[in-house]
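Contributing new complexes? Match this layout with adenosine-5'-triphosphate.
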Amino acid sequence: MLKRILAPVDFSAQTQKSLDFINTMAPCGIDEIILMHVVDIRILNDTSMMFEESLDEKEFLKTCTKNARIKLENLANNFSNKKIKVSTLVHNGVPFSVIINEAQKLDVSLIILGHKGHNLAGELLIGSTAEKVVRKSNKPVLLTR
Ligand SMILES: Nc1ncnc2c1ncn2[C@@H]1O[C@H](COP(=O)(O)OP(=O)(O)OP(=O)(O)O)[C@@H](O)[C@H]1O
Ligand SMILES: [Mg+2]
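Output block (do not edit by hand):
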């Protein structure tokens, strides 16, 4: 029986694959899934260069957080297995680091994430977030394909 699964999602095509996989695991016994998105604060450095005037970082993060909440709620509502409790969480930070810390704090039984996310073009077998979580987390990690 898995008490609590942390499923970090980036809303890429891999997200649905991870959710589908969790569904197939349901007969193993899952109490709760926490769908989490991390608004990557590193995009502020990249994005601010595109603006002539200084970017209102607080406002930008607020908008990203609000949109992420809506998207997570949609995913949670559409999750087909109604026997499993699904909750949602949004944080700001560097994704791999937030994922590792939250997994520890929430004392999850397992972290399930995609082997890749938005950057499908890369030559690497797994994305940088996935790679760091696998390498540094002391919680069990499962990567979906
Ligand atoms: N911002 C995020 N918030 C929550 N989960 C994330 C986030 N970014 C990535 N993930 C999780 O990590 C998985 C792998 O994504 P990752 O970022 O490692 O690969 P990528 O986007 O293809 O490559 P890279 O980001 O290294 O260029 C995703 O499928 C998702 O489960
Ligand atoms: Mg990524």
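Reviewers usually confirm one structural detail per submission. For this one: The chain has one domain: 2-144.
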